[in-house]
Design brief:
It is built from eleven helices and three strands; from the N terminus they run H-H-H-H-H-H-H-E-E-H-E-H-H-H. It is mainly alpha-helical. It has a three-stranded antiparallel β-sheet, sandwiched between helices. The structure holds manganese (II) ion.
Length: 251
Amino acid sequence: MSDRRDFFKKIGLIGLSGIATKLVSNEQLQALETLGQEGISSLPFTLPALPYAYNALEPFIDEQTMIIHHTKHHQAYVNKCNEIKSTDMDYQVDDITKCRQFDPTSKGKSILRNNLGGHVNHTLFWTLLKPNKDAKLNLPSGKLAEAINKDFKSFDEFKKLFSEKATKHFGSGWCWLVLRNNTLVIETTENQENPFMRASVVDNDTVKVVLALDVWEHAYYLKYQNKRADYIANWWNVANWEKAEELFNAK
Ligand code: MN
């Protein structure tokens, strides 16, 4: 549990805030406690500043997209989280941490799941992007590169599989590189869910997120319109491998 707490500190989710400190006491629900401990440990939730300028990811991700994505979409998730009454929050957070399957008939729960997930996922995503003005070849190195070669045969093979999976994911969601039980795997999640929310986490899986890609249309539509594959092909230029390695190597 402390590993996960440290992990979220490292990815910059501290300081968000503490309504759900109750979560910490629930020993069985480690995966989503992670979100609870650092992601919602105090109120109000706040929009984290980007570690670069809005135009810094040009030409691969355009300034206007970054401005709207950060100040409108991410801000909206933050606002929604803050709007949820604390009395409701106690119940809903408890439900989320049990990694229950999303219940479309339960509106209140989905509101929290979607918006808290949106806040956590985007907070992580911004740190996993990095300017690359000179369009230099952008590759992982060190132990992460070794692990990618081991689990996917080569970086090119990994890139191909990740791109395919991200492109083909139906509708809104995320594509992730995850270290699950010491093996790197590519996973996608619906809407604003993330690998920590999956039921399999409860079954004693160890899960570490290494890389995240937002494949919602709002992440690319202004520049790439409907061409998600082109957005993904360009995103590889600004994937922050240093950050990914830091996450991979984190205890
Ligand atoms: Mn997004």
